[in-house]
Q: What sequence folds into this?
């Protein structure tokens, strides 16, 4: 059977969990995730986990934080005076917001803390610093060559 390798376009069903068992993403009820192995479309550990699988194979992989979204970077935690927010804006801890850097590039932050005069925002990926567990099922290798059995 053909094994998935770098450069192959594949389709994968997945269930992503934290090591605590809490689900953070799943393809359940949706089409399988299409991507090219090694194409930079998914995190390195996910690419590595699918490599070598055959169509129909299921397995569970654990991806350390360094091969997922990296460690939490304390430099990406920003303190901002509360008066820089729009007057009518209600913010809560855990709320996602979008900010712009001086070049106009937008990025998502999460409200981490609110005090009387400041707001603490975290620009790290929400899964940074976390080991991830994925249940995988390789559904298809696109363009895979058919198996030919000679008599």
A:
């Amino acid at each position: 059977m053909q094994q998935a390798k770098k450069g192959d376009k594949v389709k994968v069903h997945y269930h992503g969990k934290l090591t605590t068992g809490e689900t953070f993403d799943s393809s359940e009820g949706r089409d399988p995730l299409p991507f090219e192995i090694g194409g930079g479309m998914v995190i390195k550990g996910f690419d590595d986990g699918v490599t070598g699988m055959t169509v129909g194979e299921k397995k569970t992989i654990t991806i350390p934080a360094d091969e997922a979204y990296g460690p939490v970077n304390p430099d990406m935690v920003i303190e901002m005076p509360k008066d820089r927010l729009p007057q009518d804006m209600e913010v809560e801890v855990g709320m996602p917001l979008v900010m712009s850097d001086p070049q106009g590039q937008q990025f998502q932050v999460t409200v981490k803390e609110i005090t009387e005069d400041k707001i603490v925002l975290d620009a790290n990926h929400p899964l940074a610093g976390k080991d991830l567990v994925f249940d995988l099922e390789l559904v298809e290798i696109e363009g895979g060559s058919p198996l030919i059995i000679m008599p």
